[in-house]
């Protein structure tokens, strides 16, 4: 038995090359526009986020009791003024308090701050605040701009009846 004729082998190789090229072209028309749009949206978001800014003012934590020990069932209130100091509207998602032991306490904000708008946040609960009382090391605001500095030192909290 002899091998394939050189002409037939060449035709088969050309057919394989055309099929591979068509597959790549089809994949490229499907993948690249989607990927390009995603990169464009990320770039636009990053550019807009350079114009974002937040200020956290008047943050207080009231333990609701006169003794230094927080108790479960006693109403505790966290209040804060969050001001948009940037040039764009800014969605706010969450506020976290982190104590010195690394415990996180999460509060949902789910609001959007317009230009120069202040959001008055108040959360009242009967949760046990042990581990919170005078031990918050930092406050973090989660926004639509993750690269924007939104971490504040816990020493700005004013403790009331704690």
Q: How many strands in all?
A: 8
| Largest beta sheet: strand ordering | 5-2-1-8
* Main β sheet profile: 4 strands, mixed
CATH class of the largest domain: Mainly Beta
Q: What is the helix content?
A: 25-40%
Tell me the CATH architecture of the largest domain.
Answer: Sandwich
Q: What is the helix tally? A: 1
Label the overall shape: elongated
Q: What is the ordering of alpha helices and beta strands?
A: HEEEEEEEE
Give the termini separation. 96 Å
Class by helix and strand content?
alpha+beta
Radius of gyration computed on alpha carbons: 29 Å
Low-pLDDT regions: none
CATH topology category name of the largest domain: Immunoglobulin-like
Strand content: 35-45%
Indicate the mean pLDDT: 78
The tally of domains stands at: 2
What does this structure look like?
With 162 residues, the protein is an alpha+beta fold. The chain folds into two domains: 1-49; 54-160, Immunoglobulin-like. 27% of the residues lie in helices and 37% in strands. It has one helix at 6-49, and strands at residues 54-62, 76-84, 90-99, 104-113, 118-125, 136-143, 151-153, 158-160. It has a four-stranded mixed beta sheet with strand order 5-2-1-8, with no helix packed on it. A hairpin with a 7-residue loop joins strand 6 and strand 7. The longest helix is centred in the first third of the chain and has 44 residues, at 6-49. It is elongated and about 95 Å long. The protein starts with 5 loop residues before the first helix and ends with a strand.
């Amino acid at each position: 038995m002899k091998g394939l004729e050189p002409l037939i082998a060449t035709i088969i190789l050309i057919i394989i090359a055309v099929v591979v090229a068509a597959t790549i072209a089809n994949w490229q028309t499907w993948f690249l526009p989607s990927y390009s749009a995603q990169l464009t949206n990320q770039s636009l978001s990053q550019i807009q986020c350079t114009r974002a800014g937040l200020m956290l003012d008047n943050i207080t934590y009231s333990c609701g009791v006169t003794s230094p020990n927080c108790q479960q069932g006693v109403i505790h209130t966290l209040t804060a003024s969050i001001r948009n100091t940037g040039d764009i509207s800014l969605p706010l998602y969450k506020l976290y308090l982190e104590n010195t032991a690394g415990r996180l306490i999460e509060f949902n904000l789910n609001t959007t701050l317009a230009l120069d708008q202040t959001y008055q946040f108040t959360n009242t609960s009967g949760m046990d605040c042990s581990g919170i009382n005078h031990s918050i090391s930092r406050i973090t605001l989660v926004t639509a701009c993750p690269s924007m500095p939104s971490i504040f030192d816990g020493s700005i909290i004013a403790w009331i009846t704690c």
